[in-house]
Design a protein that fits this description.
Bound molecules: nicotinamide-adenine-dinucleotide, uridine-5'-diphosphate-glucose
InterPro entries: 6-PGluconate_DH-like_C_sf, NAD(P)-bd_dom_sf, UDP-Glc/GDP-Man, UDP-Glc/GDP-Man_DH_C, UDP-Glc/GDP-Man_DH_C_sf, UDP-Glc/GDP-Man_DH_dimer, UDP-Glc/GDP-Man_DH_N, UDPglc_DH_bac
Pathway: Nucleotide-sugar biosynthesis; UDP-alpha-D-glucuronate biosynthesis; UDP-alpha-D-glucuronate from UDP-alpha-D-glucose: step 1/1
CATH topology of the largest domain: Rossmann fold
EC number: 1.1.1.22
Enzyme class: oxidoreductase
Shape: elongated
Pfam families: UDPG_MGDP_dh (PF00984), UDPG_MGDP_dh_C (PF03720), UDPG_MGDP_dh_N (PF03721)
Radius of gyration: 24 Å
Distance between the termini: 56 Å
């Protein structure tokens, strides 16, 4: 395989993985970013985010000189420019593409004649056409745009880069499509070559589908709670169906958060509406998600007889377990709602030292000390390991709202806790043991 000269523009969460990954695929990679601190940090082999395996991979690529980070790059030196800048939502859900167009302008100054701009950021269908028009207007009609969406999950970024379920390459011409597909030749995964709009839509469709299963799971979990059914067993029976699958997004909780699912569902709704189409299913998914936090706050309000002056401990602050990322965290949204109603909120998360508007005392016992209620926001081993008797001894009152089903409700009820799950009598097995 031929080593290509690749420029990665924007080395935030996605750009850093892309740069390190392409260097490990034996390409010659330069990463640039407008954030000078980030460039300095990565060039020194330091990585802020909690991404297992990525720091070591970064350091080895730097050592081998396959990778470097710089504030800027020499003009005319690159065959490919990967755009990995953010595409955040505007208030109506429309993605803000200003960073993307600025990055494309930079690519136009740095690519060799006939070079290729690869959009790795999540972009609305039709963006590739608009970028090519902008490049033509800038006198770079020789350049082409190819979309290769990124499907990795935070907290598993390095694993997902190296072992993706699929690679999607969307281009207008076959030669360019092939050239970009070859960059990933070292990865063993099915490669879908398609037109650019299909590739752009493939990313949004994937996130919309995942979000929809989360909202479905949340509604089923609510119904199970009303009926006294066991959600754990319920979802296991669904996952056992091969048409649904073991890794289906059927984990209930405070709803989907993070940098992608909320903004990409909003963007897809916007994209459809702009073409006169209403996506009813997606709208319901978003609405169900929006209501989760309010439901949790209402349960706590009722159980505590008002939130004013209550102390509430929230366990799990990042947008999901296993990451330090607080963007669109539903746990933080709940903390904010509780605080708005006069509660004092304390938070604990092993991967988060501080969070805006919330007191983080640094240890789990300190977060629980004197609390009137406990919110479990993450399903994680460290939560499951928490001893309910020790928690009861630390807290002022024994009340727990467990959003994801992260604790053993029977054990917590036995320790005197009132929980948000209605418990049925255990089923006696034929041998007399309890199930
Ligand atoms: N975070 C994820 O897990 C994930 C996964 C798949 C796709 N995506 C998509 O990838 C894109 C980037 O997301 P992210 O989480 O990496 O964002 P991020 O904010 O972490 O990183 C973006 C980086 O781009 C830099 N930047 C902005 N304008 C620039 C410019 N003109 N030139 C050079 N650098 C510039 C910023 O300083 C920042 O470091 C988004 O479209 C997102 O939807 C994200
Ligand atoms: O069964 C589940 C699974 C997830 N979630 C929540 O859904 C959100 C998103 O989770 P996850 O998909 O693991 O997070 P991301 O790292 O944001 O990854 C998603 O968003 C990325 C950015 O587009 C895509 O690349 C990934 O494929 C897509 O999974 C989080 O708040 C989770 O807590 C649930 O509530 N229940």
């Amino acid at each position: 395989m031929e080593a290509e000269r690749v420029l990665v523009i924007g080395v935030g969460r996605i750009g850093a993985v892309t740069a390190v990954g392409l260097a490990h695929l034996l390409h010659d990679v330069t990463g640039v970013d407008t954030n000078a601190g980030r460039v300095e940090e990565l060039q020194a082999g330091r990585l802020r985010e909690a991404e297992p395996g990525l720091r070591a991979a970064l350091q080895s690529a730097l050592r081998l000189r396959a990778l470097r980070f710089a504030p800027g790059a020499a003009p005319g030196g690159f065959d490919f420019a990967f755009l990995c800048v953010d595409t955040p939502p505007l208030p109506g859900g429309e993605p803000d593409l200003r960073q993307l167009f600025a990055a494309a302008e930079y690519a136009a100054r740095t690519l060799r004649p006939g070079g290729t701009v690869v959009t790795r950021s999540t972009v609305p269908p039709g963006t590739g056409d608009r970028l090519e028009a902008a490049l033509r207007a800038a006198g770079r009609g020789d350049l082409g745009v190819v979309h290769v969406p990124e499907f990795l999950r935070e907290g598993r970024a390095w694993e997902d880069f190296r072992e993706p379920d699929r690679i999607v390459v969307g281009a207008r011409d076959r030669v360019r499509c092939e050239r970009v597909a070859r960059l990933f030749a070292g990865i063993s995964a099915p490669v879908y070559r398609c037109d650019r709009v299909t590739a752009e839509l493939a990313k949004y469709a994937a996130n919309a589908f995942l979000a929809t299963t989360v909202s479905f799971a949340n509604e089923m979990a609510d119904l199970a709670a009303r009926l006294g059914a066991d959600p754990e067993v319920l979802f296991e029976t669904l996952r056992a169906d091969r048409r649904i699958g073991r890794e289906a997004y059927l984990g209930p909780g405070l709803g989907f958060g993070g940098h992608c699912l909320p903004k990409d569902t909003a963007a897809l709704e916007y994209v459809a509406a702009a073409r006169g189409l209403t996506l009813h299913q997606l709208q319901a998914t978003i609405r169900v998600n929006r209501e989760r936090v309010g439901q949790a706050a209402a349960w706590l309000d009722e159980a505590l007889g008002g939130l004013e002056g209550r102390t509430i401990a929230v366990l799990g602050l990042a947008f999901k377990p296993g990451t330090d990322d607080l963007r669109e965290s539903r746990a933080l949204a709940l903390a904010e709602a509780l605080a708005l109603h006069g509660a004092e909120v304390r938070g604990y998360d092993p991967l988060v030292r501080e969070a805006p508007g919330i007191c983080c005392p640094g240890t789990l016992p300190a977060a629980l000390e004197g609390a009137d209620a406990l919110v479990v926001a993450h399903r994680a081993d460290w939560v499951r390991a928490l001893d309910p008797c020790e928690a009861a001894a630390l807290m002022a009152r024994q009340l727990v709202y467990d959003a994801p089903g992260g604790i053993d409700h029977r054990a917590w009820a036995a320790a005197g806790f009132v929980t948000n799950r209605c418990l049925r009598e255990p089923v006696a097995a034929a041998d007399g043991s309890e199930r």
